[in-house]
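hey can u run this one w/ s-citryldethia Coenzyme A bound, need the structure tokens asap thx
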Amino acid sequence: MENTAEKKGVAKIDVDGKVVEMPIMGGTDGPNVVDVKRLYAEAGVFTLDPGFTSTASCESKITFIDGEEGILLHRGYPIDQLAQESGYLEVCYLLLNGELPTQTEFTDFARTITLHTMLHTQMDRFFEGFRRDSHPMAMLTSNVAALAAFYPDAMDINDPEERRLSSHRLIAKMPTIAARAYKYSIGQPFVEPRNDLSYAENFLRMCFSVPAERYVASPVKIRAMDRLLILQADHEQNASTSTVRLAGSSGAHPFAAISAGVASLWGPSHGGANEAALRMLREIGTPDRIPEFIKRAKDKDDPFRLMGFGHRVYKNYDPRAKVMQQTVHELMEELDISQNPTLQVAMELEKIALEDEYFVSKKLYPNVDFYSGIAMDAIGFPMEMFTVLFALGRTVGWVAQLNEMIEDPTQRIGRPRQIYTGAARRDYVPISSR
Ligand code: SDX
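ok here u go:
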């Protein structure tokens, strides 16, 4: 990757009377950055930014987010256009290669992915060690890391061919692992991928078909699944993507770095929010109980938060939430479950929250996870699988960002510093003297 940020000016910081100048860099769109990499060398001070609310960790050309305007672009293309016009595998090609494919390029790419969907049969034995009620995210995290053991050559991350092969293997095998995690949790036999099915259809069949019956996935569910994957494909430098970049910056096996991203996504503040949001909607149960939960969300002494609301970047409506809401309505109409009580509560909660001063003042809008759980539930997945489905969609984003980090000529191992406020130097005291 070529770094193309341009110098836009100079920032001056006065540290104990010494004025240090740092370049201000600008990109295609979004806020400029102050390049502080020389700050410690020239002024002897660090910057402090827990949670990285004001810190850019890298230059990237993959995804652009404007939180104030509610804009999300993948390689320049708006997410709502991709969700309506494209397909998940085409979005994978776009994120990995930077351009939309020609028909020939897409056909070759799709065929390549298809031919990598099977797992080494010994992988199946890793599932046997889990209790049947193990959370599928535990099985996904560990099996993605275990995959590294079968592809030692992928450690040569500076070989573009090895990176290409690893990228295709991860995108191709994640559905097979995810489906196995689901099948294992419900005590049903694993279903092998089929090369004549599309990515989303193949995944649904591996999850929901049983040997005893012929299975044909509903076209509405296939389209909804594919759109869910598109909406979760990448999202700039979120917690799990930053985890993948930091883990990969040491030269770790790419599959191990991706498994670190899966682990980070699991948290309820991040990818676990879709499962938490549906649990919350089910706990609310009926629209008349919403005010009680809104009151709790505002109570500083109550750790309860409205899951599926708020975002570190979006201080406007999450553009993915709009498309997800439309997908939910399509599913509800097609599957004739428009009276779904959970959907009724969701629609009423969204309406009330968007009019409530607390949420308006804090710019807490529904995010991608608010509706995605309802869509995943309508397709037939249990709540425990929701974050697995998020990880499935996000795999291509993690892979594209990991590759970009490896190809970045300025890339170094990530090693933040700290401000130390612990004990000053002191001598050891023998226990007999304490
Ligand atoms: C994802 O980064 C990404 O891009 C993530 C993601 C992706 O695609 O990778 O978009 C996917 O993770 C979406 C977010 C899913 N998480 C949730 O829905 C969980 C509920 N949301 C919150 O936990 C929270 O909004 C975060 C974690 C999403 C954002 O946290 P921030 O930016 O650190 O904001 P904050 O916690 O500092 O909150 C700011 C204020 C606080 O009040 P004050 O201290 O200022 O008085 O808003 C309040 C918070 O108490 N607040 C909420 C709230 N979210 C924030 N109050 C009630 N309900 C909420 N959901």
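Residues 160-185 form the longest helix (26 residues). anyway lmk if its weird
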